[in-house]
Give the backbone structure.
Amino acid sequence: MVFSNAVPAIPLFFAGGEALRQRDAAFPAGRYGRTVFSYSYWGRSNIMKKGKKITILGTGNVGATIAYTLAIDGMASEILLIDINEKKAKGEAMDILQGTPFCAPTNIYAGNYEDAVQSDIVIVTVGLARKPGQSRIDLAQANVDIIKSVMPQITKFAPDAVYVVVSNPVDIITYAILKTTQLSECQVFGSGTMLDSARLRSRLAEHVGLNPKNVHAYVFGEHGDTSMIPWSLTTIAGMEMSKYCAYICDEHNRCGKEELKSIEDDVRTAGAKVIALKGATFYAVALSVRRICECILRDTDSVMTVSAMIHNQYGINDVCLSLPFVVGAQGLRRPIIPPLTQEEEALLHKSADALKEVISQLKI
């Protein structure tokens, strides 16, 4: 069957969401789901069944890099970019789309909130960028106000999507979204300390001379200055870190608390150092978001340190911060609550209290 005359032959990367609206009017979703039409420069179309759809709010450095990373990966067949700067969103979509012949086929385009219908994941990157010397908390009120204006518009059209929050300060923004929308707590979580934990694993692997995949370590709490490392949970080559250091590591006679403090400081200040050198961070966070999306779309039930609403974990309540959660197709499945030392619990409470102090000063 040929549909060449059914709808105007409009290249998607030029027309953005308008072409899709015309397409959907002519060919509405049926019992087998919506059919996606891929338009070429010459107006010819072919048909493929709709796969996974990801919407990205915001096409700044972070949002655009996430879109590029997801396009290369090929896990989504449809990527929608939404930005208040429509020209920027359309330009980013065109730039990535024109390179898709070299990777998995992905339909990437710019559009509006109404185009987010049937999104499986919505990635939130809107907000002001963090400036050199500026803490994530300093961004809080301005970005909360932006979120409060954006979320009612996107949730109207994508009420069932899983929302992955990347905007900083991520713990505060995640909390604000949960408090100002009707989305469930399993649907909304922030990237949190996913990247911090990756930085820790990388730094420890460098220290012991192993592949980072042989190091398991976490950063808990705020994605920021009060984050803490539960060293008691760290394992290297399948062993508790204390045993690895005592029996395997050649540096055990010279390595102690000072070295751990140095590693912890490196992890906590890594983002600020990158910002001081190049003005922004976006590659590493894009890779961490790619991993989160993979776990959602492939329903992997993976344990991740993401920022979510806390209910009596370690006696902490009514705040969003990073702890281990099982992540799958519907978002958060359940929390993982590993035992901590008394000192570690105290540091986690300190981080929660710092976030609550900021929240108490905001108009949410």
In short: The first strand starts at residue 35 and ends at 39.
